[in-house]
């Protein structure tokens, strides 16, 4: 099976509500999506096409290549279809593979059962032909096979990513309540920031927003930080394509920016973590870090974007204190950030009201399972205040 040279359906998955940003990235790479849905983008391509996708995408999670779509009413039918696939031409018979799944079928009470059925079909097939079987287990750092099974419609994919792409490999120390890197990038993309004007991130925590902003501005892509992907473990893999793509990423990356990125936090520990993460990402020199209350953050005269991700009571903090904090954030934006566009990412709409400014846009996101918004504020002289609720 020449998967590296045979076109098939490719599904790039992403966290809920990130697909508009993923679509932009896919199109910028020159691919034409055939479908965009809430948790992904679909296109046509070969496993070779998945190499640049895996190395370049910031907003995606997994790049899946369709091997076969079929009807399966129950586990026995699933097995019978899967055992006909030439797994011996895809998976190293002395190697290791794992199975992941997204299943909604009346016969399957736990996804683990479906995974075992897939594993059995692969192992039985390879053993009957090669006389030896590959190992399998939960680690997703070698060959990964993904089953999508809704009612009686089944699709079996090669997961060419393996470990998720949504983490960008530079964050060695997570900090408290960090944003997922793919989410952080998507929120920055949602601001339409020009990538050449000031970017301020008070309350930076582990630094994800500031670091992602620096990576976007310098054209540094996640593939620069990662050397292992699912596609590398498939039979027929030719490493020259991967190394050529990596070389192109290195050539494209800029070293400097002509504007400031500022990141501050009241916690010295958080700033220390943010600095270390920025160093791993190779952008420490582009970010001015400081330990201070957000109100003391330096706001350069040349305007740009100021972006907050305050605590919102779901995982950290206490509400009454947070109400004051949100009010102070609003005051800071109104008084100190004139000419900027202000953004607050939060999962708590009641707290957001305390900001006291009328949002020009409320952009929908999820943080994990929590419904969140990115509030946008135009901070020009005489910014509109949120009208006082009528008594
Ligand atoms: C939700 S976390 C930010 C997480 C961050 N986006 C990340 O990806 O790691 C909120 C941060 O606000 C900081 N913080 C809370 N009150 C602050 C204040 N008054 N001034 C500055 N930072 C504050 C906390 O120390 C915490 O690091």
Automatic annotation (TrEMBL):
Annotated Ribosomal RNA large subunit methyltransferase K/L-like methyltransferase domain residues: 169-374
Domain THUMP, residue spans: 74-159
SUPFAM superfamilies in the cross-refs: S-adenosyl-L-methionine-dependent methyltransferases (SSF53335)
Pfam families reported for this sequence: RlmL_1st (PF22020), THUMP (PF02926), UPF0020 (PF01170)
Coiled coil segments of this chain: none
UniProt keyword terms in alphabetical order: Methyltransferase, Transferase
MF annotations from Gene Ontology: RNA binding; rRNA (guanine-N2-)-methyltransferase activity; rRNA (guanine-N7-)-methyltransferase activity
Organism superkingdom: Bacteria
Domain RlmL ferredoxin-like residue range list: 9-64
Transmembrane segments: none
Matching PANTHER family: RIBOSOMAL RNA LARGE SUBUNIT METHYLTRANSFERASE K/L (PTHR47313), RIBOSOMAL RNA LARGE SUBUNIT METHYLTRANSFERASE K_L (PTHR47313:SF1)
Protein known as: Putative N6-adenine-specific DNA methylase
Organism for this UniProt entry: Mucilaginibacter oryzae
Lineage: Bacteria, Pseudomonadati, Bacteroidota, Sphingobacteriia, Sphingobacteriales
């Amino acid at each position: 099976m020449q998967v590296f040279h045979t076109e098939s359906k490719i599904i790039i998955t992403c966290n809920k509500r990130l697909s508009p940003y993923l679509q932009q990235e896919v199109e910028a790479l020159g691919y034409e999506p055939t479908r965009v849905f809430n948790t992904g983008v679909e296109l046509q391509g070969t496993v070779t096409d998945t190499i640049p996708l895996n190395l370049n995408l910031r907003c995606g999670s997994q790049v899946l290549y369709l091997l076969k779509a079929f009807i399966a009413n129950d586990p026995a039918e699933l097995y019978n279809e899967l055992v006909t696939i030439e797994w011996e031409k895809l998976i190293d018979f002395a190697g290791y593979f794992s199975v992941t799944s997204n299943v909604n079928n009346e016969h399957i009470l736990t996804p683990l059962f479906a995974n075992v059925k897939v594993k059995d079909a692969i192992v039985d097939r390879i053993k009957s032909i090669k006389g030896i079987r590959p190992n399998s287990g939960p680690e997703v750092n070698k060959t990964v096979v993904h089953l999508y099974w809704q009612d009686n419609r089944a699709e079996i994919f090669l997961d060419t990513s393996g470990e998720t792409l949504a983490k960008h490999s530079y964050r060695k120390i997570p900090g408290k309540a960090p944003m997922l890197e793919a989410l952080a990038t998507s929120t920055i993309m949602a601001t339409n920031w020009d990538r050449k004007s000031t970017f301020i991130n008070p309350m930076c925590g582990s630094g994800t927003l500031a670091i992602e902003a620096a990576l976007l501005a310098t054209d540094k892509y996640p593939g620069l930080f990662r050397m292992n992907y699912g596609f590398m473990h498939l039979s027929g893999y030719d490493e020259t394509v991967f190394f050529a793509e990596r070389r192109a990423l290195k050539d494209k990356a800029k070293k400097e920016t002509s504007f400031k990125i500022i990141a501050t936090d009241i916690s010295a520990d958080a700033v220390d973590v943010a600095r270390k993460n920025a160093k791993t990402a190779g952008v420490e020199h582009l970010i001015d870090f400081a330990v201070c209350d957000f109100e003391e953050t330096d706001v350069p005269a040349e305007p740009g974007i100021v972006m907050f991700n305050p605590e919102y009571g779901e995982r950290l903090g206490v509400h009454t204190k947070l109400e004051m904090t949100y009010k102070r954030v609003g005051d800071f934006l109104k008084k100190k950030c004139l000419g900027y566009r202000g953004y607050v990412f939060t999962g708590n709409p009641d707290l957001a009201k305390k900001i006291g400014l009328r949002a020009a846009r409320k952009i929908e996101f999820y943080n994990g399972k929590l419904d969140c918004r990115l509030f946008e504020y135009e901070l020009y002289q005489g910014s509109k205040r949120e009208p006082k609720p009528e008594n």
